[in-house]
Amino acid sequence: MAGQNVFRVMLRMQIHPGMEREFEETWYAIGDGITGHPANLGQWLAKSAEEDGVYYVTSDWVDEPRFREFERSERHLEHRTRLHPYRSGGSMTTMRVVYAMRGART
Fold it and tell me: Fewer CB near the terminus (10 Å): N or C of the chain?
């Protein structure tokens, strides 16, 4: 199945030691600030199995212009402000999904 031009954003976040649980809970509690946006297709939080305190947030968007619109919004600023105290560093990568294939269990 084609990726249908899905725009994917992946954040890598380094969380201050000892703040991981609170970060996870806060991320979950305010997640609808992202998923409630009409252009958002979903988001996921994953914890690195190899690096202590490293998390990855992946979110899918209908297209890049709508993501960029959200990125400049007050809603995004509020979301970032709530998560900022937990972060000691991070980076963002963007990409376009070329193909999407569902597994047998979905």
Answer: C
In a domain, 102, yes or no: no
- Enter the pTM of the model: 0.89
* pLDDT tens sequence for the chain (106 residues): 455 689 999 999 999 999 999 999 999 999 999 999 999 999 999 999 999 999 999 999 999 999 999 999 999 999 999 999 999 999 999 999 999 888 998 7
Beta-bridge mates of residue 10: 58, 93
Distances (CA, A) of 105 to 43, 75, 101: 20, 35, 12
**20: three-class secondary structure by DSSP:** helix
Position 60 in a domain: yes
CATH code, domain carrying 30: 3.30.70.100
Token pair belonging to 94: 């963007």
Name the strands in the sheet holding 7-15, side by side, starting at the edge strand that comes first in the sequence: 40-47, 54-61, 7-15, 87-96
Token code pair at residue 90: 């991070």
